[in-house]
Amino acid sequence: MLSLVATGFTDGGSLDLSGLPEVFGAERTWRVIGQTFAQAGLATVLSLLLGVPAAYALYRLDFPGRALLQGVLTVPFVLPSVVVGVAFSALLGPGGPLASWGWDQSFIAVVLALAFPNVGVVARTVGGFWSRLDDTSEQAARVLGASRAQAWRMVTLPALGPAIASAAALVFLFCSTSFGVVLILGGTAFANVETEIYRLTVQFLDLRGAAVLSIAQFGIVALALVVSSRLRRAGERAVVLREERGRGERPRRADAPVLVLFGATVLLLHAFPLGALVARSFTGRDGEWTLANYAALADPPPGLPIDGTVVEAIVASLRIAVVAALIAMALGMLLALVLSRRPRAPMLRRGIEAFDGLVMLPLGVSAVTLGFGLLLTMHRPLGIGFDLRTSTALIPIAQALVALPLVVRTLLPVLRGIAPELRDAAASLGAGPFAMLRAIDLPLLGRSAGLALGFAGAASLGEFGATAFLVRPGEQTLPVAVAALIGHPAPGSYGAGLAGAVVLGAVTAGIMLLAERWRTDGAREF
C-alpha cells in the first residue's frame, strides 16, 4: 500500500500531485465510481431483503434438513467469483434459458450475481446473532396485545439492528471490491473501480492512474472496515447480555411466507444459475448433449487462449492452493493466539484492538489492489537476489494474504471462549506458555482448525483478482484459464470455459462442505 501511495503521489522521488486532477478530472473515473457505489448499494439491499428471512428460517426454526441447508448456503460465499460470473452468463447470455430477457452484460445481471454469495453472509451474520437473542421482550409485547408482526417490528428488529448493520457493511465491502463477477458480466460498460484498475494496468500500462484509483479504493474499503468492526463489536456486546438459545421452533402456518421466500431464494438465485451452468457445460454448439467440453479440458482444440491444458491449470491451482492454505493457517493460528489474549493494562488492550484491525486489512484491501501492490514491490524484496515477480512464489503468498482474515475470524472466537481461569490454574500448577498451548489451546481448537483450513483452501483455490496480476505465461491457474476461455471467440472456447467453471466450482464446494462437517459452535463468528 505504501508503494501504491508513492506511485500515485510522487514522480522521480519528489512529491507530485498532478496525477490526482488527471484521474479525477476524467468523466469515466466518476462514472466508474458511481457504478461501483450503485452496484454495491443495490446488491447490499437485495442481500438484506433475502438474507434476513433466510436467517429466520435457518436459525429460529427447526425442520428436517436445516443443518444441511446452513452448510449449502455457505457454498455460494466460497465459490470463486469467476464461477459465479460464468454461471449467470450461462443463464442470461446467448443460448441461456433466460437469454430472451436481455439481461446479459447488464447492470441487473451484475447486481444479481453480487447478491448471489452475500445472501449467505447476511443469513450467517444475522442468524448467529438471532439464535442467541432472548425472546422474552417479544413474548411480553405479544401478551400486551401486539400482533406477531408488530412485536417483531417494535422489539426484535431494533434488537437485530447491530447485526443487520454489521452484515450490511460487510456485504457492501465485498460487493464494492468484486472483480471476477463484474469483469465477466459488466465488461467495460458497467465497470467498477476494481476492473478499471486492472484495465489501466494491463491494457494501458497507466500505473500512475491505477495507483491513484487504488488509493481511492483503499479509502472506501478502510472506512467500510472501520464501520463493520465497530458494529460487530456492538453486536457482540449485545449478545453477551442474552441467554443462549436452544433448538428452534417448529414452523407454523404464519411462517409460510418466510419459508416460501427462502425457498424461492435458494431455487431461483442459487440453484437456477448453477443448474444452467452445469446443463450448458454438457451442451454442444448445436444444442446436443455431449462430453466434448470436458474432453477439451485435457485435449484443447487449436486456438484456445491458454498455455497447455486446463487439466494442467487444475493441478497448478491445487498445488498453489495447498501451499497458500498452509501459509494462511500457520500465520492465522499465531495471530489468533495473540489476539485472543486479554491483557489487563488498558494500553495493551487498545494495542490488541488496533492489531486486530490491521490483521483484517487484507479483507478490506481489494485483491486487485493487493496484486498490483505486490507487482510494484516484489522485484527484490528485503535484498533477495532475484525478482520474485518472475516466479510463481508470489501467487501463494497473495492467496494466503487473502485467506488470512478468514482463518483468524474462524479460530479467534474459540480461543476467546477459553476461560482465563483455566490458563491461570495451569500456570499455578507450573505449566509454561508452550505447555498451556499444547494442553489447552490446541485441543480446544479441534474442528475449528479444520473449518479454517477449508476456508483457506477454498478461498485460495478460487482467488482471481490478485492472481490475474501475478500469473506468468504457461503457469495459469484455473480461475485465470476459465476467464480467458469464456471471453475468447475461438470455437469451443466458451464450452471449455463452462466445463472448467463446473470443475472449479465442484472442487471448491466439496472442500467447503467437507470443512462444514468439522464446524463447532465456537466457529460461527464469520
Automatic annotation (TrEMBL):
Instruction: State the organism named in the record.
Output: Leucobacter chromiiresistens
The UniProt entry, under PROSITE patterns, shows: ABC_TM1
**Residue ranges of domain ABC transmembrane type-1 in the record:** 33-231, 314-515
SUPFAM superfamilies membership: MetI-like
| Keyword Transmembrane helix listed | yes
UniProtKB keywords: Cell inner membrane, Cell membrane, Membrane, Transmembrane, Transmembrane helix, Transport
The protein's matches in InterPro entries, at most eight in alphabetical order, are given as:
MetI-like, MetI-like_sf
UniProt GO cellular component terms: plasma membrane
Q: Which GO terms describe its biological process?
A: transmembrane transport
Write down the membrane topology: Multi-pass membrane protein
Protein name listed in UniProt = Iron ABC transporter permease
